[in-house]
Amino acid sequence: MKRIIRYSARFGTALLLMVLVWSCATIPGLKEETGGSFIRIPFVRVLLEENQNEVTFSSKSPFAVECLAKGEQTVYYSSRPVNVIKEGDLLKVTDHKGGLIQSRLNEVNLIPRGNNARIALNNQPYRGLMKVLPNGETVRVINVVYMEDYLRGVVPPEIGKRSKDELESVKAQAVAARTYAMAHLRQYEGQPYDVKSSIIDQVYEGLKVEDNLISKAIDATAGSVLFYEDKYVNAYYHSTCGGSTDDVAAVWDRKEIPYLKPVKDDGACSWSKYYSWKEIFSESQLRGRIEQYLSSDRGRDLRINRIQDVQAVERTAGGRVLKLLVRTENDVYRFYKDRIRWVVGRTSNPDLILPSTNFDVKIERDGAGNLVRVTFEGHGYGHGVGMCQCGAIGLSRQGWTYDKILTHYYTGAEVRKLY
Given 3-state DSSP classes, what are the helix, strand and coil percentages for the chain, each rounded to the nearest 5? Predict the structure, then answer.
């Protein structure tokens, strides 16, 4: 391993790093200039980690380590792993053997050297550069990456492994994911990141999930996003609609949005393994699930009496249960909209929520009329708002183009090339 040393040509290198790092600190957007306008490919700041007090960075090629302390900048390089560790309210950097490189730092940036170089966080490689900041008792790791490279780590886990005859659905997913990201830049006010790398925003797994066919679809749609009346579409999507998507206001407690209305897909997603499903609960199992939910929701241990009846008393235009009524011996409990999935859960996997709210309820009773079993027979997987991913795949198999798929699920929207 080469020793970690200071650059001799620090001024030139530091200037280059300042341009690279600090140009990432502000997300590029539309720029107006005399004689015309242009837009640069935007960066996305992705929160990768905020629960560890020590992280390790490595690369197959030498990489730069920029250390910032009270406005002072020092730049090192290494061909071996380095550790960034929380130290009091600040950070310190050590080499792979634990030797101190520099301490009392406000910020550390890990920057690849060379076009094909990548930085790995805890052995997981990513494109772009890494920014490390102190965060209470832990460190916060942010991947600053070009939008198109961000999508290479998002679209594969979202759409899965696909074949050539499904390429148009991958293009549709790329445009939807790009639109979501563009619409949510700077959504976390006052925070140094734009999106999280989990289902809270979009699942992002970096270089390890990149796929040639999916990258081809991303490149083919580069810069293309969805607009509705000159505003970015809230491009929600889900796995399987089960026959129809739904109105956003009927699924969540949100205002109506013209392009997020119920849309039938005529069985395009019927090939999905989640198109039909069934969950069976004994009375005691369902009672336990409801008690668990209510106790968590109300912050205290809560028990309900034996369940006497379960009814889906209202439905959405897309067929989902809008209100679920659970009657016990002396109480009535009402649960609404997509929250029903958390209330009921599953018996097949207690750690998961109900696949969807598009279900029928079947009751079984004993000879004395007591409820003994409840069966939820349903269709679909996910919230049901926006694009049905399995439906998009089914439509692409039928020859639909990506823009037709998108404007089918997002009513009245249009695809525009932004950059």
Answer: 25, 35, 40
